[in-house]
Amino acid sequence: MASSPLGRPTRGTTGTNRLRRNDRWIASAAAFRRAADPLVVDLGYGASGVTAFELATRLQRVRADAEVRGLEIDPARVATATAQLADVHAGRAPFPPDLRVSFARGGFEVPLPDGRRAAVIRAMNVLRQYDESDVPAAWQTMAARLAPDGLLVEGTCDEIGRVSSWIDVDASGAPQRFTVSLRLADLEHPSIVAERLPKALIHHNVPGERVHALLVALDREWDRAAALSTFGATQRFLAAVSALREQGWPVLGGKSRWRLGELTLPWAAVAPLP
Ligand SMILES: C[S@@+](CC[C@H](N)C(=O)[O-])C[C@H]1O[C@@H](n2cnc3c(N)ncnc32)[C@H](O)[C@@H]1O
User: Fold this and answer.
1) Tell me, what DSSP letter sits at residue 7?
2) Which residues contact 263 (CB under 8 A, 6 or more apart)?
3) Residues contacting 122, CB < 8 A, separation 6+
4) What is the per-residue pLDDT for 10?
5) I need a surface site. Which of 154, 184, 226, 233 has the fewest CB within 10 A?
6) Whether residue 147 has pLDDT greater than 60
7) Is the CB of 135 inside a 6 Å radius of any atom of ligand 1?
8) pLDDT tens track for 218-236
9) Mean pLDDT over each residue of the chain, to the nearest integer
10) Residues of the chain above pLDDT 90, percent
């Protein structure tokens, strides 16, 4: 294991409920639900421990034995979150006092005690501030700390968590799926997510690339389904996603996910051209 954490401190912006869409994704993931050891890492949790507390609260509703380990490369942020955790345990915070959360210093090498491996590692808004060329090695290094059926979820969202996207990476470090998750109420166009694509895709949203074609098609079907707005934005999104599927886009999941404003495709459908 590296003697100093791998990576570099970046801006610590975070916020209450910012990662709720991503929490929900992890709570539904087989890698978490079926894990022998449901240990989930919140890597680069930022200036406050709030996203780790929220993640643990949501995961413990699914599995009482779920545990969250917050890792930060910035030691001052570990101290802040550790002080917040004392408030949680003392019942002075709006989280269950018995929340199974801990914090430590760490980077992409994902240090875990006792040789444990993570069921899920989530790294939201961390690689955004790195170069695209750093992404494959960061994925590989983090994925090496996963359980064999584990999942790395790496992505980006806006400050208030209405627009988000992430990539599922398997334990070999290979990207598997791409998900867009949007708050549908008041949504003008799904392509707003272009500003919040994961680092591996954001520079490829240009004509000729697959991710660009996807966002163009999604906007077009969203516009076509405008008449359904009278039945609500959810119906409009369902219609748009169904149309994409009919056109041959290999949309994954079903209506129960699409209703949430989620659209998931195999990585191959959006991967940058070689
Ligand atoms: C923008 S904040 C994101 C906070 C939170 N994940 C969120 O989405 O709201 C990025 C955080 O990642 C941390 N960070 C950057 N590189 C890291 C690395 N290699 N390992 C651990 N933390 C890292 C930074 O110190 C910073 O606090």
Assistant:
1) S
2) 179, 180, 181, 190, 218, 241, 244, 251
3) 19, 22, 26, 40, 41, 42, 43, 55, 152, 153, 154
4) 86
5) 226
6) yes
7) no
8) 999 999 999 998 999 999 9
9) 96
10) 95
Output the pLDDT for position 22: 98
Q: In this predicted model, what pLDDT tens digit does every residue of 1-44 receive, in sequence order?
A: 446 899 998 888 989 999 999 999 999 999 999 999 999 999 99
State the sign of the Cα–Cα–Cα–Cα dihedral 112, 7, 78, 143: negative
Looking at residue 253, its pLDDT comes to 94
Give yes or no for residue 57 CB within 6 A of ligand 1. Answer: no
pLDDT tens sequence across 75-110: 999 999 999 999 999 999 999 999 999 999 999 999
User: Is residue 153 lining ligand 1, measured as CB closer than 6 Å?
Assistant: no
How far is residue 134 from each of residues 2, 173, 182, 211, measured CA to CA in Å? Answer: 17, 13, 27, 20
- CB neighbours (10 Å) of residue 112? 18
| Ligand 1 near 10 CB (within 6 A) | yes
Q: What is the pLDDT of residue 2?
A: 46
The answer, yes or no, to whether any atom of ligand 1 lies below 6 A from the CB of 141, is: no
Domains of the chain, first to last? 20-172 (3.40.50.150), 190-268 (no CATH)
The Cα–Cα gap between 59 and 156 comes to 20
161 Cβ inside 6 Å of ligand 1: no
Q: How far is the CA of 109 from the centre of ligand 1 (A)?
A: 14
121 Cβ closer than 6 Å to some ligand 1 atom: no
Q: Which of 142, 74, 145, 86 has its CA nearest to residue 113?
A: 145
> Best mutation site among 80, 126, 196 for ligand 1, i.e. most ligand atoms within 8 A of its Cβ?
126
